Amino acid sequence: MVKSGKLRSGTGSKLKRWKKGHSSDSNPQTSRFRQAAKSRFFSRPSGKSDLTVDALKLHNDLQTGPLELSSGGRKDAFMEEEPDEAISERTSGTFLSGLSDCSNLTFRKVQRFWESNSAAHKEICAVLAAVTEVIRGQGGKETETEYFAALMTTLEVVDSAESQAAVAYLLNLVMKRVPAPVLISKFSDTTKALMDVMSKQATAETASALRWILSCLATLLRKQDASVWTYPYTLQVFHGLLSFTVHNKPKVRRAAQQGVCSILRGSDFLFTDNAPTHHPAAATTAKFCIKEMEQAGGSKEDTTTLHVLGLLKELIGTFPLAAVKSCCETLLRVMTLSHVLVTANAMQAFHKLLSGKPNASTLSPELNAQIITALYDYLPSENDLQPLLAWLAVMEKAHIHLANLQSSLSLGHLPRLFSAAMSCLLSPHAQVVSAATNTLKNLLTECIAPCLDEVGIISATASAGNPAYICKMFKIVEEGLSYRYHASWPFVLQILGCFYQVAGKKAHPIMTKSLQSLADLRSTPQFPFSGELDMAVGGAVESMGPDVVLGAVPLNITGFNDDLEFPRSWLIPVIRDHVKNTRLGFFASYFLPLATTLKQRGEELEQAGQKLEAKVYQTLQLQIWTMLPGFCTCPVDLLASFKGIARTLGMAINEQPDLRLTVCQALRTVINKSCSTEEEKVEVGRFSKNFLPILFNVYSQPPAAGESGTYRMAVLDTIKVYLAVTETPMTCTFLQKATDKLSSTDTTEFTRLAMMDLVVAMAPFVDEVTMTKTFELIRPFLETKEPGMQKKAYRVLEEMCGGEREECRSFVMANLETLKVVLLETLKNASSPAKRPRLKCLSHIVKRLGEEHKDFIVALLPEVIICTKEVSVGARKNAYNLLVDMGNAFVRFCGNTKEAMEQYLVLVYVGLTGSVTMITCTVLALTRLVFEYKDSIEVSTMEQLLHNVCLLLSSRTREIVKAALGFIKVILFIMDPKTLASHVTVMMEGVGNINDDVRRHFRTKLKNIFTKFIRKFGFELVKSMLPAEHHKVLVNIRKIEARSKRRKQATEQPDDSESEEESPKAKTESIEDILAESDSDMSEDEGKAKKKKGKPQKGRAWLREGEDDDPLNFLDSKVSQRVLATNPQLKRSNKVEHGFKVTSDGRLIIKDDEEEGGKEKDEEEMKDILEEAGVKSKKTPKRKIQNDNFDDDMDIEPHLKYKAGGSGIHRPLSGRPDTGADYKSKKGKGDVKKKGKLDPYAYIPLKKDQLNRRKRAKLQGQFKGMVKGAQKGAQSGRKMQKKKRKA
To answer: Which residue ranges does the record assign to the RRP12 N-terminal HEAT domain (predicted)?
Structure first.
């Protein structure tokens, strides 16, 4: 070991030491880097440089000495041009100054290259610096045009390949921003220079500049006018660019292809008013592609065809019609090569063409139809997964595009595709079945649905035209119900359901037979796909209507001599869930008599003592009534049929309590969803004189003994909805009767509360005079000592003040002074339950006040602040909202938001001098106001407020400290970090001064605040500002943050260890994804063998031999289906998907909840901030409402019942649960084994305490007792068996 502070012997001479007293010098005597700079480490620019010996000497002096001038001579030497200005800290310019301070934003991408170690990057930086210096030397303004001219000159001068590449790169950047007139005027000179460089680079080994030259050419051609393309020279230049699209170097080829695409798709003249339909060079490009593919021939190793296909799939949509036709013919020819990758790329080209939705000038309906017909010759085998998925995707796009161009032609081609897609449902691949199903559903919605408006009713006798095509398609789908397709029945049912929804309205005559088949399938025992079948029939109900469906599949329920199994009863919930937009009269004519019959039959059976059968009929009757809301959803015959059913509905509400919920829901549905016209509203409102008295009576009567009162809330909601379509004079009459009954002395308390609820419902729908009378009537109730009546009186006032009708606004303005006086007088007598509606009422009034009523707002402020600590969640929420409304009122009064906030906050500050409760409520109010008006409060005001709140942290009262901590949490969220940094010390001092008892109580809240401080300002700063008792928590927070950061990084890293099993891929969105794996399947032997180094074999294909030893006929028209891209002998693994990721060594990766809940954590944090600011209410457990008062703000915190659990005095006294009771035999002694449960043995837990030697005797005694019990049971069992044998 070497002693500390000393070096090993012999090392002193090897090291360089500072002179005594100079170890702290900033610059040592050695100047290695300056020497390197002097020796021209970088290439010196050719022009005159500012780097002189005097400037370098001055730079050295400034670095080693103070920043001042020691002699006048140096000043003269350095500042000859500006003798009056003081020297700055900036050093003199260097040869790279043109790069570092280049003002043109085009080259901001280059400025990060100067630190790179790449020679090419350094060359780019040097060229840019030199060009910038030249432009500045000539007095230029560093515009794009100047850079373009300078770089073009440089390109002609430089000879080295590296410099040419650098200049070409910079040219590529700047030419995109050069004005188009410049490029048009300099077209010939620029193209000549670029073509010269391109021809030299094309034959060179290193073509580093070629890709940038190609990009420059593309930019130049893209900016030219359409007239330039008439010259042969322009097409010659374009052909030069086009020839590089099949280059063997990927970067060059990609640059050329991108350039050609940008020219044909994005030339400037294509976006003018008189733009041509196609680019002039489009036809030339198409000929080039065709020529290259034909020259490549059928060689499988030649990649030229693939390169051309890559270009073609991007450009084929821009070609004219004749060129598109030629290209499609060439694509179909190269697909006959049965080369997997070529076929895949050709399909991609077709998909790109069709999904781009070209117009008829590019793809005519006839050509589209010819493509569809030709692609049937390339239908892959149903066992060939990826090619078949691609074929289905292309055919789907082709038919949808053809339907957009010419719907009648599309319908003629659809039956053949339906037949091919239905045969795909027999495929063993689930992915193919799912894709075929989605294809058929998309075709139904995109191709068939739009043309049904032009088609009449479709019958089975249709012989030609569109109806015949639709009939043929449905028959093809209907064949899917045969047993041959039983494995795919869920998908067939989905297609049928979609067909019903799309065409059921017009084609129901041809669909009744399939409905009968579905009903027969549904009645078979243990039919496994009943859910899918119900959805399919539901689609039929939705489109055809229940009358057509029931005509094909009758319910077979009459009420007399019925099969008590009711095999068709499944239709009732299906109709209930899907019926809409149908005839309400059908319910009145078919279902109402049936429900009446079933009810009578149930009563007869109950009188006869057959209670079970009676219950079945009663249940059926109730289920029939549940269909009524569906029939009331947008009925087509509301005006004609509602009057026929209204009387029955009124009687049902009045006489049948079990139907009230359903009938009330139906009435609300009629008014809310079906009354779209004024005539319908008048028709339904005409019966308000009949319905409303019935509803009033039902609501005002107490429920019968043993009857639930849950229907009363539904009745009240129905009353409120019905009042919206009731005439105002009638509502006033009803309100007068309710108030008369309310003021009557012989009414019970229940009736009075019910009448008050009805007054609340009717108050906003009456005229201004009636509102004033109602206000005078409820005025005494505002001061009553009954909390229920007082609260409902405030609810009446709230509805009248907050109504949207003009009468409500007039009432408030006419009685404003009276309302102010009454509300201020009743402040002392306002009970806690009445606070919520009272505050809401005040909020409505404050929104309509002018500046002259400012004193009223000031008088209300203390009450509102105190209410921020109310027990009721609704009251607290309304108090916070009212504080904001008052702030908005001050803004209205002042006009200037900041002055208004200054005045408003001064009034709120007064609460900080009050009692403990007042201080707490004031801090809560200030928290909400700061959060709401964070952008409108002056910085000085915010700072003063923050200082005052931090002083409150030293209080001994927990409530005050809790409110102050909430304020700090909100401040941390809303305040700018720079502004917050100047107040960290004050906040830390305040947190450090918290009382020990209070600190322990709020340790979780404090930990949350410390975490936010550490994230904003760092661990060390926060630790240095807090006392020692907080340090342990801070260290713990740092560990938690570091752990969560590591976990987050681990989850973001790509998972290299994937399961080796071949799982089916999810449905892809593009054909590129579908075809991405067409060549990725490996044979079973290759999968087992070790992977060899080298390039993987591409384009592998398998040939499927003939069946039953038949020789393969290569002249067969369907021989292409025998060439497979997927290994037919590949055995798929049947491993169970467990849902967890696996590491490379086979271990499961199971994430913690905190890892999975990253977003949830952020949402919880945001929710916490909103709760502290009073924007969201903090949820408290609500007690169950045991009476019939339906007020929705019973938010009093409940008294939780204690539940025993644990040991000692907390042990449960009810005795130990008998765990073996489930296994006890009902017939005799002993236990029995039960399926799916553990065996009935005494399971002994394995604990490490049982290894204790001192307790061994005790444990052995327990086991002996168990053994003895088992022996007794066995002996008794043997005796019983002996007795049975003797008997």
So the answer is: 110-355
Residue 1208, SS3 per DSSP: helix
| pLDDT for residue 975 | 82
Give the DSSP H or E segment for 562: none
Specify the pLDDT at position 2: 43
- Give the pair of three-digit tokens for residue 693: 């008295």
Mean pLDDT of the 650-654 span: 92
Among 557-571, 1029-1043, 1139-1153, the range with the most confident prediction by mean pLDDT is 1029-1043
pLDDT for 425: 92
Alpha helices, DSSP H only, in 1151-1229?
A: 1153-1156, 1158-1172
> Of 906, 970, 895, whose CA–CA distance to 932 is shortest?
970
Dihedral class, residue 1230 (left if φ above 0, else alpha if ψ from -120 to 50, else beta):
left
User: CB neighbours of 1170 closer than 8 A, spacing ≥ 6?
Assistant: 1176
Whether residue 640 is predicted with pLDDT greater than 70 in this model: the reply is: yes
Per-residue b or e along 1091-1111, where b marks 16 or more CB atoms closer than 10 Å to that residue's CB: eeeeeeeebbbbeeeeeeeee
| CB-CB contact of 384 with 429 (8 Å) | no
Listed as own residue / partner, the contacts of 203-210 with beta carbons closer than 8 Å and 24 or more positions apart are 204/161, 206/161, 207/249, 207/252, 208/120, 208/161, 208/162, 208/164, 208/165, 209/161, 209/164, 209/165, 209/167, 209/168, 209/169, 210/244, 210/252, 210/255
Computed from CA positions of residues 466, 469, 473, 475, in that sequence, does the dihedral angle turn out positive or negative? positive
Express each pLDDT in 121-171 by its tens digit: 888 888 888 888 888 888 888 888 888 999 998 888 888 888 888 899 899
Question: Is the separation of the CB atoms in 1160 and 1154 below 8 Å?
Answer: no
Taking only the tens place, the pLDDT of each residue in 30-81 is: 665 665 555 443 444 455 556 666 666 666 665 554 433 333 333 333 333 3
Rounded average pLDDT over 709-731? 91
pLDDT at residue number 55? 66
Amino acid at 1177: S
How far is Cα 898 from Cα 341, in angstroms, rounded to an integer? 69
Q: Is 292 helix (H, G, I), strand (E, B) or coil?
A: helix
- Higher-scoring residue by pLDDT: 1265, 245: 245
> Which residue, 287, 281, 288, 247, is CA-closest to 267?
281
Structural contact between residues 419 and 472, judged by C-beta atoms closer than 8 angstroms: no
Give Cα 1186 to chain centroid, integer Å.
Answer: 40
What string of DSSP letters covers 2-38? PPTT-PPTT-TTTS--PPTT-TT-SS-S--HHHHHHH
Q: Phi/psi at 1224 (nearest 5 deg)?
A: -70, 135
Residue 84, pLDDT above cutoff 70: no
Pure H helices in 656-687: 660-669, 678-685
d(CA 393, CA 387): 10
Q: pLDDT tens for residues 10-29?
A: 545 445 565 666 656 555 55
Identity of the residue numbered 969: K
Q: How far apart are the C-alpha atoms of 1105 and 111, rounded to whole Å?
A: 63
Between CA 616 and CA 963 the distance in angstroms is: 60
In terms of Cα–Cα distance, which of 1224, 1242, 1244 is closest to 1234?
1224
Alpha carbon distance 1022, 1031 (integer Å): 9
CB 908 within 8 A of CB 873: no
Rounded Cα distance, 755 and 211, in Å: 86
Higher-confidence residue of 260 and 205: namely: 260
Torsion-angle region of 1208 (φ positive above 0: left; ψ -120 to 50: alpha; else: beta):
left
Mean pLDDT score across all residues of the chain: 80
According to DSSP, the residues that pair with 1113 across neighbouring strands are none
Instruction: Count how many residues are written for the chain.
Output: 1287
Q: Which residues pair with 1231 in a beta bridge?
A: 1224
d(CA 941, CA 1210): 54
